[in-house]
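To: structure subgroup
Subject: Chain for Friday's discussion

All,

I'm putting the inputs and outputs inline so they're searchable in the archive.
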Amino acid sequence: MMIDDTQDDTYAEKGMLKSMYEQAFAERESYLNRARECAKVTIPSLLKDSGSNWSSVFNTPYQGIGARGVNHLASKLLLTLLPPNSPFFRLTIDDFDLAELTGDEQRGAVEEGLAKIERSAMNEIESNAYRVPVFEALKHLITTGNCLIYLPDDEAGMRVFHLDRYVCKRDPMGNLIYLITKESLDAKTIPETARLALGLPSPEELSPESPDKPYELFTYVCNKGKHWHIHQEIGNIAIPDSYGKYPIDKNPFIPLRFSRVDGESYGRGLVEEYLGDLKSLEALTMAIVEGSAAAAKVLFLVRPNGTTRIRSVAEAPSGAIIQGDAQDVSTLQVQKFNDFRVAQETAQKIEERLASAFLLNSSVQRQAERVTAEEVRFMAQELESTLGGVYSVLSQEFQLPLINLLLQKMVKSKKMPKFPKDKVKPKIVTGMEALGRGQDLTKLGQFLEYLAPLGPEVIAQKLNIDDYMDRLGASLGIDTGGLIKTDEVIQQEQAEAQQAQEAQMKQQQEAQMMGDVVKGATPAMAKGMSEQMSQNPEMMEQMQQAIAGQA
């Protein structure tokens, strides 16, 4: 949530954002050039050349393994970073904080409540359709190595800034110092305060024939210790109401890197590591395609001074009989099949290396609508082991800031309660524990297996069944509300059962007393008494009271 602030000397000097962006542009230029080379051999539209627009036509690479590998790996990363079936994080609370807040360690009930919040956060991700922009961002990370995600705190959705739309600076530890974004706006979309500062007319006053002049909007975000300071400028004019600050862990701008390099402000992509193979495969594929086209072309040569007429050969249908000499006609064709075979074998070897690099030959994930939790866990492990810890980097630089911002937005919109400060913290679990609470289920099962030799009597005496069932439901990620009976419901059912038992015993006593009375009477008297008592129930009560008094 942005905190209002006045303009002070902690911000960059007014009117200097454009020059700061241009100065930082030189450091970014080398990364940008390499990123464009990587995009040309994979998906050219990911990062356009300078001066390109929506009408530009991009040359499609001759080989398609680059684009297929980027899309496939991005899908795997998306499935592990934002799994559809369970939360990718867990809310944790320390035992001492738990005892301080609840008075006793009711961890089962607390875990159940935290699991509900986790499921609510995942529903928020689904409703805001975060997976679409995240998939775009992952493709940029794999190809260019860098990407910027923006989550506005006052509206739903997510924006993705490409490498050519922002600059950033990091300290030697890799922490972000500042970043500047650059956007193009037309006169109709400029905020009101900025329009007044620029002296522009209102959108209603603009005529449809007026030229659509683009305006450059610069956004500056700077780390000032406890807060992120932010303000915006259009050209060299500062927007008055754009000044503000965010808490240090609630920055809506999240700069991502595929892999971090010590001392560098920008990251490196996976495509850059295999750029040599991709370029070689591109050249070989182009040569094979063009050579195959040339080899497929067949020309017929006719001897100039021969007796065979060229028109007769060209116009004669199949099976026709014409006059001529076979020695006068010959065929011309490129005889380079051995060279093509060598090129194809080399290209095949390169494709195998690239398929292994982009996990195209992985058999972990099966083709199904719903992927099981175990499959997600295996994919997380595969990404961790194959890509050299890139999944761990993304978990800390993407997942953790994302869930912090999401929880803050849910608190602001009153979709969840506000946690006590620094008591409940989100934790991203990676690798084999990629599913968070799903691993707790396994541990609970192992715990019961170790207790089994003690016997059911000892387990029933020592184990808190209610707390165990709460933890089990939280581990499975299901809402146990209404599924497990509360203490009040159990007490009510016990009272009703006791009342039913007492009523049954009373009926048995009444029947026994009736039998004793009838047994001592004559048959005629018994028949008459039975008829009278059936017609007059009060007589039955009087007889019971009399018998009770005699007793």
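Points worth raising on Friday:
The radius of gyration is 39 Å.
Residues 487-519 form the longest helix (33 residues).

D.
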